[in-house]
Amino acid sequence: RAGARKDEMRQVLAALKRMEAKGYAFEAADGSFKILVQKALKQHRPFFDLEGFRVIVEKRGKRQRCVSEATVKVRVKGEREQTAADGDGPVNALDRALRKALTRFYPEINTVSLADFRVSILDPEEATAAKTRVIIESTDGEETWGTVGVSGNIIEASWEALVDSVEYKLFKEEERRKNGGGRKVPAAGDNNGADVRSEGS
Q1: Exposure string over 66-79, b if 16+ CB within 10 A, otherwise e
Q2: Fewer CB atoms inside 10 Å of the end CB: C or N, the chain?
Q3: DSSP character for 5?
Q4: Under a CB-based contact definition with an 8 Å cutoff, are residues 109 and 79 in contact?
C-alpha cells in the first residue's frame, strides 16, 4: 500500500510540474488543484463536454457601452445543449451562458457566484501576444475556492477557470451525496449568474 501511495504522489507531482511549466499556479487555485489530482490519478470524470463557444463584443458608437454576448455548446448526459447570454464583459457573458446550459441538468450550480477575477500577464515582453493567467474565486455560501486558466487568449484562460469552478462544485456535491449528506437544491433561475465586472476586457 505504501508503494502505491508513493506512485500516486509521483504521478501528481509530475502533473503539477508540467502544469507549472506552462504558467499555471495553484497557490490560490485549490479547486483546480483538486481536479489536477483527479486527472493525474485517472479518477476524473467530466460532468459535461464542451463542443464550442463564441464570444462577441460589440461597440455601437463612442457614447455607447460595449455589449458582450456569449454562445456555448455543451454535451451533457448524452444531450446537446446550446445557449446564449449577454453579460457585463465577455467573461460574465460566458459564465451566464454556461450556467444557462447546465442548470437543467445540475441546478445546484445556482448557489455559486464568482467573488473575484484576477489577471496576470506571464510574459509581458511579448506585448499583445503575451500569455495570460486568470484566477477566479467562487463561493456557494459555505465554501470558497479558486480556479486557474492559462492561455495566450484571455477568453480561453477565463473559460478554463470557469469550467474548473463549475466542475469543482459538482464534484463536491457528488461527494456530499455519496457520504449521505443532503442539501436543498435551488430551483432553476434562483441565481441570474455571477457579476464579473473587474475583467477590463
Answers
A1: eebbbbbbbebeee
A2: N
A3: H
A4: no
30-71 pLDDT, tens digit each: 999 999 999 999 999 899 999 999 999 998 788 888 899 999
- Reduce the DSSP state of residue 118 to 3 states and report it: strand
Asked, for residue 12, whether it belongs to a domain, the answer is no
Cβ atoms of 50 and 73 closer than 8 Å: yes
Burial of 45 (C-beta count, 10 Å sphere; 0-12/13-18/19+): exposed
Spatial distance between the Cα atoms of 139 and 143, rounded to a whole number of angstroms: 6
Look-up of cell digits 457579476:
195
pLDDT in tens, 131-186: 999 999 999 999 999 999 999 999 999 999 999 999 999 999 998 888 876 554 44
Kindly report the number of other CB atoms within 10 A of residue 168's CB atom: 25
H/E stretch holding 92:
helix 90-102
Rounded to whole angstroms, how far apart are CA atoms 32 and 184? 25
Judge whether 154 lies within some domain.
Answer: yes
Domain extent at residue 85? 18-178
The enclosing domain of 171 has a CATH number of 3.30.160.270
User: Is residue 122 a part of any domain in this protein?
Assistant: yes
68: Cβ–Cβ under 8 A, 6 or more apart, which residues?
55, 56, 57, 58, 86, 87, 88, 89, 90, 92, 93
> 80 and 51 in contact (C-beta within 8 Å)?
yes
Considering its fold, how many domains does the chain have in total? 1
